[in-house]
Amino acid sequence: xxxxxxxxxxxxxxxxxxxxxxxxxxxxxxxxxxxxxxxxxxxxxxxxxxxxxxxxxxxxxxxxxxxxxxxxxxxxxxxxxxxxxxxxxxxxxxxxxxxxxxxxxxxxxxxxxxxxxxxxxxxxxxxxxxxxxxxxxxxxxxxxxxxxxxxxxxxxxxxxxxxxxxxxxxxxxxxxxxxxxxxxxxxxxxxxxxxxxxxxxxxxxxxxxxxxxxxxxxxxxxxxxxxxxxxxxxxxxxxxxxxxxxxxxxxxxxxxxxxxxxxxxxxxxxxxxxxxxxxxxxxxxxxxxxxxxxxxxxxxxxxxxxxxxxxxxxxxxxxxxxxxxxxxxxxxxxxxxxxxxxxxxxxxxxxxxxxxxxxxxxxxxxxxxxxxxxxxxxxxxxxxxxxxxxxxxxxxxxxxxxxxxxxxxxxxxxxxxxxxxxxxxxxxxxxxxxxxxxxxxxxxxxxxxxxxxxxxxxxxxxxxxxxxxxxxxxxx
Length: 476
What we know:
Blueprint: E1 15-20, H1 23-39, E2 43-48, H2 50-62, H3 68-72, E3 76-80, H4 81-86, H5 96-114, E4 117-121, H6 123-129, H7 133-149, E5 153-159, H8 160-163, H9 169-177, E6 181-183, H10 194-237, E7 242-246, E8 252-255, H11 257-263, H12 267-270, H13 282-293, E9 298-306, E10 312-324, E11 327-337, H14 339-361, E12 364-370, E13 375-378, H15 380-386, E14 393-395, H16 396-400, H17 408-421, E15 425-432, E16 438-449, E17 455-464, H18 466-475
Parallel strand pairs: 1-5, 1-6, 2-3, 2-4, 4-5
Antiparallel strand pairs: 7-8, 7-11, 9-10, 10-11, 12-13, 12-17, 13-14, 15-16, 16-17
């Protein structure tokens, strides 16, 4: 590829060059530039010599930045400058088609995946130090052509010691014109020969360019932060779970829509008031705030909340405290409405109590047979009737062993027939209690079947009919 006096592509808007004196200074700036891009969500490409690559990674480690995650998700690509350069260089200079194949897909993939791209490259520096400044200018032009198609920020670098020679003045000017910003090394004062003037102008431009680039980067980062903040604000405000924050003095600082809808209040009626105004048990609030102030974490704490219409909501509260310098600042509180579940559990407790009284009065108890496991579980009432102690779940054969030997066959047959015919079990039998006494029981029950028609469980009740059998025997 032959060189031309004027580049066919103008300098890209975000294509800047750093003329550096010290390798450490370059590593610091490159590490900061790429890290800023990565942390703002951009893709990043580093095409560097092994020495500079290792220096950049060392700066990252010293600064507490770990690039492993970015490398793993292909947000960061690290290429060797010399090996990459050889992929598109010809005898006359960089070949445009080979350059496109070597660099174009990587640039496009990064932009497609991450939206923005920051890149550092010093292949032009290798060409310059190899004594091929015109090829370096041509490569800068290829980068500008690629940047005209795909917007990205490109950081180039040249060692100042290789640029500060009179023979390179024209190439140096062209390198400067190929970039939108120039970041030279230290400013030079004294007699103003042409080369010195170029360097001094580059230094002055560098300060403005560095500030402009930093401001632009900060604007991008701040823009992304504002987007993230808006996303999080929307996430919490419209979350389906009730959320609120309470200050150390108990004042409600914020509540989301779900919390307000749960209790029926408007923001003005709820936010700014003391949290105890909405608790049925105000002493409970004081206990909760005291516990949170000590750094405790509450998980599923049962509370009763007062709605605007006067009704009570039963809820489970999970909360911990935001602490700053050991000082309790506010709570992070998540509220789950379990009113329906509480009422259902209360109804079950009531039914269990009524059933217990009924079974005791009737001298009855119930049992559940697990046909898959060949086991049987007794209610507490039936345990009392049978005079059993200890565990209330037995193997089925152990229970049958308590049945009077003369009644066992009849019991087994009645149970098998009820299962086979999908009928109702009805059988009377004698049983031995643990204390040695005997009693007569009347058992009734039926099986439960799965979708395939297989019996899986058997539910039954037993009544003590000892007195009835004794009367019957006495009348014979």
